[in-house]
Amino acid sequence: MSTDQLSPLVADLHLLTVLAATKSFTETARRLGTSKASVSMRISELERTAGVLLVRRTTRSVGLTEAGQQLVADMQPAFERISGSYSAARDLVGKPRGLVRGHATFVLSRIRELRAILYSEIVSSAQLLIRLRVRRPVASGIAKRLCR
Predict the structure, then answer these.
(1) What distance in Å separates the CA atoms of residue 19 and residue 30, rounded to the nearest whole number?
(2) Where in the chain are the domains?
């Protein structure tokens, strides 16, 4: 199956999982920002290409057939993982990350200022670790005092 064919199929499978959760064409359309007619047509097209009925429609309710239930059960974990991964990636926007390196004389003279700047930019759940490699015993005492 080509990428051109896969994209609409994935979108329609996602639509089916939302329909399974809401049990309503109206609510599914509202959640996905589309019309009820579009949701109905896309489900019909998905059923046509699959060659099996996936949704049981009545005037009062919407439910999944056995094939629809099996398909949603197989697809739901994948869509939840995709959604979680996407949310995690979006959460990284604007958050500083990475390694900060500095020359020893810079770090020792401005460690408190550097730490204050970094702490103000890092969310409370993150941890900041400042490691100092000291080569002289005299500098060790200075470094410990500055890191407090």
Answers:
(1) 11
(2) 3-91, 104-146
Pick from 23, 71, 44, 6: which is nearest to 31 by CA?
23
Task: Give bridge partners of residue 63 from the DSSP assignment.
Answer: 56
The model's pTM? 0.59
For residue 147, the 8-state DSSP code is T
Percent pLDDT > 90 in the chain is: 41
Token pair belonging to 96: 């500083």
Neighbours of 4 (CB within 10 A): 7
pLDDT tens digits for range 2-52: 555 668 888 999 999 999 999 999 999 999 999 999 999 999 999 999 999
**Overall fold of domain 3-91:** Arc Repressor Mutant, subunit A (1.10.10)
User: Which residues have C-beta within 8 Å of that of residue 94, sequence separation ≥ 6?
Assistant: none
